[in-house]
């Protein structure tokens, strides 16, 4: 049986492109590895796969029958496979805070404070001296542009920019910023999409103390796209909160042009959310100027507030 590379539940572009890129690298150096996914793909991710000629990775929810897994783009147990204890974690490649996955055997770890997991995987290709195929380079480049919001996110580093430039050259992409904007235009297409699908499009659960906090994010080029559906979005995050026995559900509506986010909140204790961001909620909403990153600007202050 092969090993698998798998990202988090509700996979985003970084999660999927990381699984594809890492599985090729591992297989090339003699460790047969296949990419997998833990959920359905977003329009942006489907755009990237179609652009560079990839099929969707296998939808696989159990891994007990495998030779182990490489965990990419997360290290929190709640975000990974439900049967993670029944398989061997061979490695973790991630750019988030260190989570609570533990192992009984030694493992490979590549964890760096950069804007995207694919930036780390580019470093791994360089370390092993493996040439990156043109199509994989293009997908990796798009994932970095997505996660760094075309370099506007506070998580973006010089390493991310250098990796995009190198990957663009390999992929033969002359204007990578134009491709990034095309990608975000696809991401901004929300009209006609069911509200629940939007709420869960980029959604992660986090354990904070004894509480489960769900945080979703929708990045668009114009926040006005949500004007007619904001009330429905607020009603649905309240439903998601109750259905999942969560303490709170937050939804970030991020405007990549204005470089800020409107925060929608459903919570058992909204005062904790207000404490985290130093903002008063008005009708369950607040504008957070300059806030674009869930992992750097939202999760840390929430964890402090719930400590």
TrEMBL record:
Q: What is its EC number?
A: 3.6.1.1
Name any one Pfam family assigned in the record. DHHA2
The organism's superkingdom is given as Bacteria
Q: Name one GO molecular function term.
A: inorganic diphosphate phosphatase activity
Give the DHHA2 domain ranges. 180-306
| Catalyzed chemical reaction(s) | diphosphate + H2O = 2 phosphate + H(+)
Cofactor(s) the record lists: Mn(2+)
Q: Which keywords label this protein?
A: Hydrolase, Manganese, Metal-binding
Which SUPFAM superfamilies does this one have? DHH phosphoesterases (SSF64182)
One Gene Ontology cellular component annotation held by this UniProt entry = cytoplasm
Q: What is this protein called?
A: inorganic diphosphatase
Source species, please?
A: Corallincola holothuriorum
